[in-house]
Sequence to fold (918 residues):
Amino acid sequence: MVISAQESETLRRSALEHLFMPGNDVLQMAEEGEPRIAVEGDGIRITDSQGNSWIDCNAGSMSMSIGYGRTEVADAAREQMIKLTYFPQGTTTEPLVRLVEKLAELTPGSLERTWPVSGGSEAIETAVKIARAYHRRMGEPSRYKIISRRGSYHGMLGMSMWLGGPRAGSPGRIDNEPGYPGMVYAPQPLPYRCELGGETPSECAVRCAQAIDDLISFHGPKTVAAVVAEPISHASAAAVPGDEYWPMLRQICDRHGVILIADEVICGFGRTGKMFAMEHFDVVPDIMTVAKGIISSYLPLGATIATKEVADAFAGEDNIFRASLTFGGHPVTAAAALKNIQIIEEDGLVQNSAETGAYFLEQLESLKEDHPIIGDVRGRGCMLGIELVSDRGTKVSFAPEQKVGEKLTEKFRERGLILRSNGETITLTPNLCVTRSDVDEITAAIDSALGEMESELSLSA
Amino acid sequence: MTTATSDPEALRQASLKYLWMHGRDWIQMAEEGEPRIIVEGHGVKVTDSGGKTWIDVNGGYNSVNVGYGRTEIAEAAYEQMLKITYRPMGMATVPNIKLAEKLSELAPGSLDRVYPTSGGSEANEMALRIAKAYHRRRGEPGRYKIISRRGSYHGTTGGVMWLGGNQSRDDLEPMLPGLLYGPQPNPYHCELGGETASECAIRCAQAIDDLIVFNGPETVAAVIAEPVSTPTGAAVPGDEYWPMLREICDRHGVLLIADEVINGFGRTGKMFAIEHTGVVPDIMTVAKGIISSYLPMAAAIAKKEVADYFGGEGNALQGTLTYSGHPVSAAAALKNIEILENEHMVENSAQVGAYFKEQLEGFKGDHPIVGDVRGRGLLLAMELVKDRETKERFPKDAKIADHLNESFQKHGLIFRTGGDVVSIGPPLCITRDEVDEIIHAMDLSLWELEGELGISG
Fold:
């Protein structure tokens, strides 16, 4: 459905006039012919209003797990919309009940009670609130501090934006001060740049987990409510912690009576080659948050899922957890999510994520041999990261004034890839339906873009 | 796949086990044969899995403005879903742009730049974020305090759950820093002793002026308020209030945020409730009625004069939400707005709302416990009191809400009240006949309640 050049330009002008485009300068976008308008999609490819075809290397917002254009999801949503689109306060609907039942079946251990929301940030906000309220129900109201890791990201609402959170000095941080009270920060178990000097993933994992134990002891366990972490950190460009990390965190939290929250908003529903990334580590968190892949962004949906043990603290009229969201538990989004999950299961997309992801990782590893700009290649399943360095020996990053991020993003664009680099890393999160030949095509484009970048920077192998 | 069948009892059991329902206790629901599972809806009525039809007096959290069962919206959403359901980062989609254009056209004054979100809480979060960042762009980074009114509600996520105070605050401490509270201009219970709506309005607006001066205007970012306050039961401030707030904010360089999440899209008998006051806020937030809850959609809309500060290198607003500007929600919202306009539902809200209010006023003659009736359009409330003269409230152990909810249910209304204030917000397509039906059921329920309480009319 290509629209006329004139209509396309009118729409683009209107977007520049009437939409906030977060993170982007509208004046610059106006000059560069942006924003592009996506009009149709199929698998990992989309077409813009001018008829250009693009490979979306980040599955929308790391979210379109099943790929673009699955009309079965549209059919399921329509069918529900014809029946019922909403519900009176205090009642519920069939697709929602079926969805929460399905989530209880899919999630590990006794994770079984679901608080439905409309996005990942809301899911994390809810998880933190549940953790604090849980301790209150258990007679420990002094537990309110939340531990997250530096360099992580867990959302952008009033409380969630301070978990991990934007970098010091960035507008995203300064604009929103004062920060939320009670936030405590731990090191990121990123093996390539271990904050605590660990030289292997194991050493880094052990030291970073131990640091959380120390933080809890220093603050006093009776003041700590929860630890929040992504199993594999997307914000740190798919940093996979050493195998020791998660079992240690689980043991530390248990020992101190602290709730462990796994943020599977990006990792969940096959992104890392397992249905949930926590399964790689064989650890069951007390609360899990999901969004994105649960519905492949076909409609807005997220969820907070608690273990029976945590949820049971809220049973009884005096113990109700109060925080209604109008759109939480929407029947149409639930129906679409059920169809999305069915597609993930029937098409074997979790397995494809593992296998094609492993192949993709191999291809990126082999790029490393030819490209000195690549310091590290990492990740699991279809969540992969490349770390860029100006010197492989010292692991020094490029200076912001070299504008490596902008230049690389432009080179990817010239090669038909929608793929951004911030100058320090490149994160790849394709749709889970990606094929080996898609991977070859993407790898070839990255290969050529990096080569050109290196010659501009006069880097040689 | 799942073990659930279409057997309603199996579904109910599954919901009790696996669903964390907002605001309800699963133990109590289990005993009472709850939750009810709704299977279809038309206009103001819904049908449950047992085949029983109910009137949804609160239109699903005051949100289903066009009413249930408008399949045109399903078709508009479906059509969009067949084209494209999402977009790559940094790209726009046709319906998202068209919706932003439409909102700019509908919103008063120069409110013309839109940040779409997926719910009212997020919209208010964005409004506060824009307000703080605006002051920083203007070289006044010391402005971070936000003024709200005690008893108001603006959402449940971290940045907004403390606005208005919060009834569940024990669970949520520690609170966000930088929040200040002004009085609520509720004429029936004026905190500042104003004896008329005007007097209350003037005193409450003046109190916000005083609060800004006391804290130092150079520390205050914004005042946020609903034009007609819902949690206090459709409290309409005296006419002086909003023009005074506007003047006070202007004088101190403070942004004025109007929360139209519930008020907007015809709920009060105007497209936006702020139109009753002739005031244009600097930022307005909308949700619910923008899409009648057919899908999740909301937005923060800023004035051009505010938004322009975010143009140019280094000035961009930071922070992306995955589902911001979802093309399918946008397409559904556009159709919803078209229905509101084509079927004159805003006018219907004004007219049938006025009729509804008259009928509620009529209760005062028969029912001594009705202390006050108030509201505008189809945002109405009735406040129950033990003593009309002293306005004394019923003690908690009188369990007014439980008795009423039970009676309402018996008479076919899905209508949950949390206490002494009975809030009403039906779909805007409601007819006079349907109002009569609700009034009749409410009348019976009030008689029953008075019987339980041993009060005679």
Notes: The domain at 71-342 of chain B is CATH 3.40.640.10 (Aspartate Aminotransferase; domain 2). Chain B has 14 helices and 14 strands.
